[in-house]
Design goal:
The chain contains seven helices and 15 strands. The protein is α+β, with helices and mostly antiparallel strands and 337 residues long. The site of 2,5-anhydro-1,6-di-O-phosphono-D-glucitol (AHG) has 13 residues, from strand 5. 2,5-anhydro-1,6-di-O-phosphono-D-glucitol binds next to strand 5. One of its GO terms (molecular function) is metal ion binding.
């Protein structure tokens, strides 16, 4: 039997970004350099997460952030790594992070033309249990006359030029999408130290009988949400109930939904009237990924998630995202109210 055909035409993230840049004649290379800094931050965060238990990096930092979350040590480390990477690449003017009360303006780079939003460690409440966590990011290109203030980032997701996330699971999985582009998945090869293109042009299945929501909040749900979820659990005559899958890390729930299909929901409810998830660095970046993968993402008012404008940098929203037809079911139920 001949030697297994070795794939020698490996597309690394570096090569992918170079080829993307070549498609844009006017490109200056700034975006590419920004993405390399992002790539480094994911590699570095992955390193610390995998060693956390060994070097006493689990547990609480003893502080809390603007949205009231208790910060884990890794929230703080991930935040510091991310800020350092964005600052040192010299292509970022302003940065919003879940773990920073205020937007950070890099005054050292007044001519830098990008704004970045990020959730350095998403799902951190699960960290000590070894559950997959991730980093979520979004990239805005600033207008020429930008002041480099947070107003430059209080924009709808339709203005994102790119977004994505890295899930630190069995291996580090990066999902990256550009405005109007495809969704591409890269897997970290630790031997090479490279993200390798393993999931080109990802499309979320149009339907899938999987729902992902924290049913512990059912008491607080609005009537349309109760009716919708019950319609999945107690289907009409002869229908088959949906499977429930909820990890409690948005990145992990999102990655499964992207690959398998289904719906992920964090509804606004009577306990959290504006929902729990943050628009800038959780809802909007994920909405761009799901729309570019052929799915849908809407807020609790059934408005297209990418058109929601945050009132402040940590503003929250309800969200329903996933398979096109599954989100459509939520929209259809709400039409009856
Ligand atoms: P973060 O860890 O960045 O604060 O985000 C946590 C979020 C998100 O990851 C997840 O979907 C959601 O919190 C889970 O919330 P519940 O535990 O209330 O279900
Ligand atoms: Mn948090
Ligand atoms: Mn998060
Ligand atoms: Mn977080």
């Amino acid at each position: 039997v001949g030697a297994e055909k070795i794939n020698t035409d490996i597309v690394t993230l570096t090569r992918f970004l170079t080829e993307e840049q070549a498609k844009h004649k006017e490109a200056t290379g700034d975006f590419t350099l920004l993405c390399h800094a992002l790539q480094f931050s994911f590699k570095s965060i992955a390193y610390y997460i995998r060693r956390a238990t060994l070097i006493n990096l689990t547990g609480l930092a003893g502080s809390s952030n603007m949205t009231g979350d208790d910060q884990k040590k890794l929230d703080v480390i991930g935040n510091d790594i991310f800020i350092a990477a964005m600052k040192s690449c010299g292509r970022v003017r302003i940065l919003v992070s879940e773990e920073e009360d205020e937007a950070i303006t890099f005054s050292e780079h007044p001519a830098a033309r990008y704004g970045v939003v990020c959730d350095p460690i998403d799902g951190s409440s699960n960290l000590d249990a070894g559950v997959s966590v991730g980093t979520i990011f979004g990239i805005f290109k600033l207008p020429e006359d930008a002041e480099g203030t947070k107003e430059d980032l209080l924009k709808p997701g339709t203005e994102l030029v790119a977004s994505g996330f890295t899930m630190y699971g069995a291996s580090a999985q990066l999902v990256l999408t550009m405005k109007g582009g495809t969704v591409n998945g890269f897997t970290m090869d630790n031997a090479l130290g490279e993200f390798i293109l393993t999931h080109p042009d990802m499309k979320v299945p149009k339907s899938r009988a999987i729902y992902s929501v924290n049913e512990g909040n059912s008491l607080y749900w609005t009537d349309p949400i109760k009716e919708y979820v019950n319609s999945l659990k107690y289907p009409e005559e002869g229908g088959k109930p949906y499977s429930a899958r909820y990890i409690g890390s948005m990145v992990a729930d999102a990655y499964r939904t992207l690959l398998y299909g289904g719906i992920f929901a964090y509804p606004a409810d009577k306990k959290s009237p504006k929902g729990k998830l943050r628009i800038l660095y959780e809802c909007a970046p994920m909405a761009l990924v799901f729309e570019n993968a052929g799915g849908q993402a809407v807020d609790s008012n059934m408005k297209r998630m990418l058109e929601v404008v945050p009132e402040h940098i940590h503003d929250r929203s309800g969200i329903f995202m996933g398979s096109y037809n599954e989100v459509q079911k939520v929209l259809d139920v709400h039409k009856k109210y």
